[in-house]
Amino acid sequence: MKQSPMTGSPDAFGEDTPLARELADLSSRRRSLEAADVSFSGETRILTVSNQKGGVGKTTTAVNVAAAIAAVGGRVLVVDLDPQGNASTALGIPHSSDVKSIYDVLINEYPIEKVVQQSAESPNLLCVPSTIHLAGAEIELVSQVAREHRLRTALNAYLERAEAPVDFVIIDCPPSLGLLTINAFTAASEVFIPIQCEYYALEGLSQLLGSVQMIQKHLNPQLHVSTILLTMFDGRTRLAQQVAEEVRTHFAGQVLNTVIPRSVRVSEAPSFGQTVVEYDPQSAGAIAYREAAVEIINRSERSNEEGTR
Ligand SMILES: Nc1ncnc2c1ncn2[C@@H]1O[C@H](COP(=O)(O)OP(=O)(O)OP(=O)(O)O)[C@@H](O)[C@H]1O
Ligand SMILES: [Mg+2]
Fold first, then answer.
1. DSSP secondary-structure letter at 223?
2. CA nearest 151: which of 137, 132, 165?
3. Are strands 125-128 and 117-118 parallel, antiparallel or unpaired?
4. Which of 81, 99, 108, 263 has the greatest CB tally within 10 Å of its CB?
5. Which CATH fold would you assign to the domain 41-305?
6. Residue ranges per domain, the chain?
C-alpha cells in the first residue's frame, strides 16, 4: 500500500484514508446532483435572507443559492439590501456610487427594471445592486410615505411586468432589524435564516423570531420562517456538532438536511467577483450550496401550503 511521505499513513489513492473517503463522498454527491429532478412551480417565491447577527453567512448564502438555482434553469433576482454591497460584489455587478441602485428604488421610486443588472454568470441571474447611498436610507425612509412597503410595491410592479417569469427573488439583508430589513420582511413571504455553527449562534434568534411575528401580525400575514441553513460547519469540532443538533431539535421542520462546510474556496470566490458555484463548481462548498438549492426548490409545494394557511 502507498504511504504518504508526510504522515506515514495510506495516501489518497489508497482505499481507506479520510481524504479518499471525502473524495468518494463528493463524487457520489455530484452524481446525485446531476441526476436530481428539479421543476419550478411557475409561482414567484420571495425569500429574505436575514439574521441580525453579523458575519453568519447571509450574503454568501444568498448569492450561492441564487447562482445554484440559476444553474438548474430557474430565473432568480437577487436584491442587495445591504449598504455594504457585498452581494453585488460577489455577483460581479458594478455598484460604484454613480450606479442606479436599490437606493433609487426605495427613496426616488425608480422602477426596478431601470436598475436591475444581469450577472455575467448566467442570463438567469439578475441583481438589483446596492451602493453606498443606501447607508443613509434607514434615516431617509423614516419620513417617507408607506415607508415599510416601498420594496414590496416596487417588486410587485416589476414581477407583474417582467418579460420572463421570475422563479425566485432572494433578498440579502443587512445585519440589523431596521427599516431596510422591515421592507424585506414586508416584501417576502419566506424568511431564510443562515445560522453559523459557532458559540452564541442561537443568541439573538428569539429577537429575530419576535420581529418576524410582529411583521406577521401587523404588516404581512404571509411571512413565515421557511428555511434554516447551517453554515461554516466544521465537523471536527464538537461545538459545531452540538450547535447543529440544537438547531435541528428546535427547528426540525425548517432546517435543510444540507450543511455548508467551512471552506476556503467559499471565502475566496467573492474576490474574483464570482460565486463559488461558478468559481469552483466541484468544490465541497459549491456542491453543498447546489444541494441546498435543490432542497429549497423541492420544498416549494409545502411552503406554498404553509403560506396559504
Ligand atoms: N462556508 C464558508 N466557509 C468559509 N468562509 C465563509 C463561509 N461562508 C461565509 N464565509 C466567510 O465569512 C465571512 C462572512 O460571511 P458573509 O459576508 O456571507 O456573512 P453576512 O452574514 O452576510 O455578514 P454581514 O452581517 O456583514 O452582512 C465572509 O468573509 C465570507 O467569505
Ligand atoms: Mg452580508
1. -
2. 137
3. antiparallel
4. 81
5. Rossmann fold (3.40.50)
6. 41-305
Report how far residue 148's alpha carbon sits from residue 181's, in angstroms, rounded to the nearest whole number.
Answer: 9
In the chain, % of residues over pLDDT 90: 81
Q: How far is the CA of 172 from the centre of ligand 2 (A)?
A: 7
One-letter identity of residue 177: L
Which ligand has the nearest atom to the CA of 286? 1
Nearest atom in ligand 1 to 173's CA: 27
The grid coordinates of residue 79 equal: 436584491
Neighbours of ion ligand 2 (CB under 5 A): 58-59, 86
Placement of cell 452581494 in the chain: 87
Asked if 195 and 157 count as a contact pair (C-beta separation under 8 A), the reply is: no
Write down the pLDDT at residue 8: 42
Q: Which atom, in ligand 1's list, is nearest to the CA of 194?
A: 21
132-179 residue pLDDT tens: 999 999 999 999 888 999 999 999 999 999 989 999 999 999 999 999
List the strands of the sheet with 76-80, edge to edge. Answer: 117-118, 125-128, 76-80, 168-172, 45-49, 190-196, 224-233, 255-261
Using alpha carbons, list the distances in angstroms from residue 14 to 3, 29, 148: 9, 20, 59
The protein residue whose alpha carbon is closest to atom 15 in ligand 1 is: 57
CA end-to-end span of the chain: 60
**177 and 206 Cβ atoms separated by less than 8 Å:** no
How do residues 264-278 score in pLDDT, each as one tens digit? Answer: 999 999 999 999 999
DSSP assignment of 156-201 = HHHHHH-SS--SEEEEE--SS-SHHHHHHHHH-SEEEEEEESSTTT
Query: How many CB atoms within 10 Å of residue 25?
Result: 12
